[in-house]
Each structure stands twice: as C-alpha cells, then as structure tokens.
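Curious: explain these tokens?
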Amino acid sequence: MKKKLELLAPAGDFQCLQAAINAGADAVYFGLQDFNMRESAENFKISDLPEIKNICGKVKRYLTLNIIIYDEEIKKLEEIIKKAKPYINAIIGWDPVVINLCKKHKIDFHISTQASISNSETAKFYKKLGAKRAILARELDLSQIKKISKILPIEVFIHGAMCVSVSGRCFTSQFLHCKSANRGMCQHPCRKSYTIIDDEGNELKVKNNKVMSAKDLCCLEFIEDIKKAGVKSFKIEGRNKEPEYVDTVVRVYRKALDKKLSKKEIENGLKELKKVYNKGFSSGFFLKKPTPRDFSESEHSSATQSKQFIGKIKHYFRKMKVAAIHLNSGKLEIGDEILILGNKTGIKRHKIKKMEINKKSVKKVKKGQEVGIKIPNTREGDEVYLVIKK
C-alpha cells in the first residue's frame, strides 16, 4: 500500500492550529515564545503544549527551535526540550547544541532549512548524526532534490513567502534595524520599495523599485513532479499568516496530494490561493533559476479578498445551530460571505441566505444590532468578519 504523503501546515496560534487540522493537515509545526524563527508570531507557551497535543490527536506536532543559540541560553533551551518531550513528535533545529540535546533526551529531530542542506554529502552527515528528516535548502531544483531524497526522508516548502537570501540566512534586517533574522526578528526590509541614489545625488529609476521582494512560492501546477522526486513531507510557509490563509492553502494542497488534479482543478485551486495573502506566485528554484519576473511588484498582499471585523457571537444555540451575532461595526446583507474565527472553532466560512431579528426575517442589519444566523459548529465569543472582494 502506497504511503500517504505528509502535508505539513504552519500554526502561529490556536486559531491557525485548529484551521490546519480541520482543513486536513497531517502535521503542524509551531514555535514557543523562545528560540524560534518567527518571534513576531503569537506563538505558544510551554503550558499550551498539553492542549495542543489534545487538539491535534493523530496529527503530528513538530516544535521549531531553529535559531542560533548562545552559551547563556543553553540551560533554558534544555529545560524547554525536557518539558516539551511528552507532547511533540519531533524538534526542528539546526544548531548543533539543539541536535545534541535532542539526542541526549532521545527526541527525534529534523534538520531545519536554515542549515542549507544542498548536497548529498551534507545529507549523509546529518543522517549519521541521527536526523530523521532533512528540510532542504530552497535553492535546489527537482533533479537535485531527487538525488538527496535517496539518502534520508526529505521535506520541502511548496507554498508561501520566500526570502531573497539563501534559505533565509539574511543579514539585511540586522544591518538596517539591529534585528537579526537568524534570531527570528526579521523586519522584512526586502519587501520595501527602494530608490537608488549615487554619491552625487543622482537617482536611478528602475521598473520595479521592490528590487529584493521575491514573489511567493506556489508549486500547485507541478506538484506531481515534486511527488516523483521522492519528497515525503510537503511544507506550507506561514506562521505569521492568518487562519483563512492556513485554511485555504491546506485545503488546496490536500486535494493535490491525495490525487492527480485535472487542469481545471488546478485552475480552480490557483483562484482559491489568490484569494488569501500572496505577493504573486513563482516556481522558485524547482524548475529553473529565478529571473527578474520572479520579483514582486507588490509591497503588501495581492490577495483578491480581505476581511473586515464586524462583531462577535454573543450566544450560540447548539440545538438550533443558530448564532446570535452582535455587530460592533459595519453592516451585513443577504448574500454576504462571512468568516467565523475562534481558538476552538478554527475558521468557518458562511454565505448568508437568511437572517432574523426577534424571529422576523430581515435583509440587512447594521452596527449595534444583534441578528440570528444559522451556522453549524460555532461558539460563543467567536469573532465574525465580512469577506470583502477586491
């Protein structure tokens, strides 16, 4: 029987964690408030680990401890590893001290993309150290990946933001803002617009002044080729992203991993992916080396949809499956699409077909009103957002 390919999703908070599980992820990766490459994400506390394990059930849990480590931090790092052991399946890291502590406490470890594994000999080196998996450098093509995949299980990124530097080992943020990307504090200066000025004050105008801003990686159109390259785990970037991004991207790639998509299904999948955060799409290094066309002309998201907070669920009548929504702002009309977000709910999408106030049907509601809408499986306290098409 053919082994199922692993779809690995990001979880920056409980909403994203639940969204990833509901959408069909086989595994999630997440960080704690220390020692991970996404300091700006909400992340989790050590005390959250039992709840994370309970929520995940059979979904695997990978803890990221993937920054460089200093002497004065080793004791704290070891305490975290010991406390985390009962609740996780593996640790993602690359600093040798993380590797040694995982071996000491008998925890499986995966080598982070920060190690920039880009050849077979390096893969053999980490395999001898005891690594159960290697997350390859992003600068490899399919033929290179296929060769390395014969040495140990391979994980690759298939969707999401790409650093303009070598697998994220960038120093621009450190130079400009004294915030080290290699300590999880990147300020993303590569995404900004720049004007080039010489010593005499002359300005050089370029067609795209976002000269370092790479488009997002999107592998949907050639996912079958990645399957053939021997990849075991297909990873989605996005621990700083919102639940609707996690939900949409996981659902699209879940279908793509479970079967070969038709041309029409790929087109529909791309339309869905464009609805959530993106800076345009690129094939990265998989098929060929990037060209100037792989740089984004957008500083922020090019998503075709956004969301606007409008209120919260004040009561949920479970037997009737009706949510009483209080509008804090904006308005709602029949035909609108809304998102329901909550730590235990994850994300629910709902197109409004009927609304009631005091058991009377209404077509519109506005700020300050409370309206009843039939929505399955939501909870009191969940946030409600209006979907806005751009």
